[in-house]
Specification:
It is a single chain. The chain is α/β, with parallel strands linked by helices. It has one domain: 3-Layer(aba) Sandwich (Rossmann fold). The chain has twelve helices and eight strands. The protein has an eight-stranded mixed sheet, with helices on both faces. The longest helix is centred in the N-terminal third of the chain and has 18 residues, at 97-114. The N and C termini lie far apart (41 Å). The relative contact order is 0.14.
């Protein structure tokens, strides 16, 4: 693992740990909250929570900080740095959906090892919802529920007719932008301070953004090899070609939440997915990250969803239903 990346400051409380996974490489994650021996671990509060940041030019576990800080008091809370971002490995390799799914499967395996008698509640932001949904289909016994904040896949422009495991990567685009100096210069243009502020304004849908998030993204963008994963993102390799098929196949309880401001508000093409009984939707008067703008309301809505699961009001669909 790159020593300079490892020397980045910790952005969340608790421990920062690493997994060496055969498929995903070195994966960094944070964990905090009640321990297994704590008196606070009751049957209702013990379910561990996994938080997964979005994908952009310089993301990290810091993007889920309001949720991490709010939830760690009552349950073991984990926050992942996906491959190519934060403290995780940034080696020269293909950054695609499969790599991200493998990283999530690795952290799910670690959480299950830490809490063998518990299933996991998992929450993702934006494009990472696609990775999490695929991981849930591959490890159905590990996850109790999914929460997706402003997920991709429901907009009119989404491609939906690819074969399983296919992404929408464009090799010609990647070959062009990955040429010596070209890719690094493109990345520099995308991550100068005015550019990062511009894109965050589009995310929040307003002039006011989270300044701590802005400063951290600026700092991360200046670390060695920070350009590698974002170039694959730009070329389409991190987007699924069959995501609505994946979403339709989910049988566990799913909570979808999104805002009404900014560039990430098109949820017009659900194809009957969110109408299934295991799907629940909450719309906030916010941008794409409502937990930054109205954390108490967001946490309350999420806890209400989890409470319905625990009371039996929200259940998984039978596994023999047609997708």
């Amino acid at each position: 693992m790159n020593q300079i990346v490892s020397s980045l400051p910790h952005v969340l409380s608790g421990q920062r740990l690493e997994i060496q996974d055969a498929k995903a490489g070195v994966i960094s994650y944070y964990v905090d909250g009640p321990t297994k021996s704590s008196e606070d671990l009751t049957a209702g509060s013990a379910a561990p929570l996994l938080l997964i940041h979005s994908i952009n030019a310089a993301p990290s576990a810091h993007e889920v900080k309001p949720l991490y800080d709010a939830c760690k008091a009552s349950r073991p809370t984990y926050a992942l740095d996906l491959p190519g971002f934060g403290h995780s490995e940034r080696s020269e390799r293909t950054y695609c959906q499969r790599l991200m799914v493998d990283a999530i499967l690795a952290i799910l395996h670690q959480i299950k090892a830490d809490h063998p008698d518990q299933t996991i509640d998992a929450l993702s932001v934006s494009l990472s919802g696609e990775f999490l949904a695929k991981a849930a289909l591959e490890a159905p016994d590990s996850i109790r529920s999914l929460a997706m904040v402003s997920p991709t896949g429901f907009a009119r422009i989404t491609k939906t007719h690819g074969p399983p495991e296919a992404n929408i990567g464009r090799p010609g685009v990647y070959r062009t932008i990955s040429r010596p100096r070209v890719g690094r210069n493109i990345y520099k243009l995308l991550t100068v301070r005015p550019s990062i502020r511009f894109f965050l304004k589009k995310t929040f849908g307003r002039k006011e953004i989270d300044e701590e998030m802005f400063e951290h993204a600026c700092r991360l963008s200046r670390t060695p090899d920070a350009h590698r994963a974002p170039l694959y993102f730009i070329a389409g390799y991190l987007f699924s070609a069959d995501i609505r098929t994946v979403f339709r196949a989910l049988r566990l309880p799913v909570w979808l939440s999104h805002g009404v401001r900014g560039d990430f508000i098109d949820f017009s093409c659900t194809d009957g997915i969110t109408e299934q009984p295991n799907w629940h939707t909450t719309v906030f008067d916010s941008g794409a990250l409502p937990y930054f703008e109205m954390p108490e309301r967001f946490i309350k809505a999420y806890e209400d969803f989890l409470g319905q699961i625990e009371s039996g009001q929200t259940t998984s669909q039978p596994t023999d239903q047609s997708p």
